[in-house]
């Protein structure tokens, strides 16, 4: 159970201002109204994301508060009932309750809504629009806010977006000329991502990729090795390019069975599609059991498609140590030894720095930063560089776009390494020369999506010749033979006639003799 030190408790709301000691100055006061989940079981929860806000606020206020430009603070608005994704949408009235009850007492205050819930609930964006207030969706993302007419004051800064997965999927299929692919997905709901990816795949194929044939194969809950074996036999009858999504245990189980079926050769492509940070851990071959050696032999045939971030290792480690101290001191959460602060924590940190940067420029340039729509427009097509820990890019629709990578398994080091990536800065896929893709084929080129003779061996290029084909070929050969015989006969007759004349060369034509009559004589 988490232990929180509350500075102020108002039932049923928790108004949190712990861990923030700033020297207030006269002038603009920026207040982040943060609504979210308290259960640390979710990566975007307040106990895990909150330290990012706190560390960044200290740094921002040391600069802008001291020079009397503005000062920032955050207020958490949440009830005990908001414990999971299903609860966030049910208690949005707590945001409006706080807004109408508490915000009227601060005329120089600029309020910004921040949602650490699940998805982009339309209600959250509607509140921002109605109040003309910048609304930042910092939890898990969807496509709702991309309609700028309906949600003109909302932007999404979630570190996990789904759109890059579909962009990468399309580009990989185009680059390697894959048109028949399979998607094998976990239905256990241990992770929500496989089913979310199912929705994305089916919608994308229906709307954007009619030339790609997608075969769907759900995997039941807790499948036995026999079920996996039978499923693979069905899958490999219709596809050689297999995208996978599921728990690390399931992905390993599939690869082990594929190896046993001798289906991890260069003829097949296995791609696991994952989120960067999952509550159940990363995809790995190692589970300290009898299948570790088999899995280690199978994993070099497995590629990994996943969002990726550019971080300086030392700076990232130092910052996350700071986050961990804040989490324990002000949120009562102590990280286990094998767990680090997530991208949501780092994202919260960068969000505050980005808001401060845009707000400072708005003040200098004289923009009406109290108008939420005007303020939101400054985030569109905007890149903020946070130095050694990376940065954020928000596209023209108000959605953060993150680099996505295709990684290959390093057999020596036994982990995945980036080999190819796509980002918003370049349209085409970018190869990483230091880590070439290993296709395990004879020519080290990506395999085709179908066998040369087809999955049933009946392709016309190498299948059995039909009776119609034989009859047609025979008729054509007969006609050709007749034409040849007729041509030879005509040539022989022509040559015979020519030689009959040549044999009488000595005979003169009467006209050539020039016989004279008496009338011509003189």
From TrEMBL:
Ranges for domain Receptor ligand binding region: 123-401
Compartments reported by the entry: Membrane
Keyword Transmembrane applies: yes
InterPro entries the record matches: ANF_lig-bd_rcpt, Peripla_BP_I
GO-annotated cellular components: membrane
Protein name: Receptor ligand binding region domain-containing protein
Pfam family, one: ANF_receptor
SUPFAM superfamilies: Periplasmic binding protein-like I
Transmembrane segment boundaries: none
Keywords annotated in UniProt: Membrane, Transmembrane, Transmembrane helix
Main location: membrane
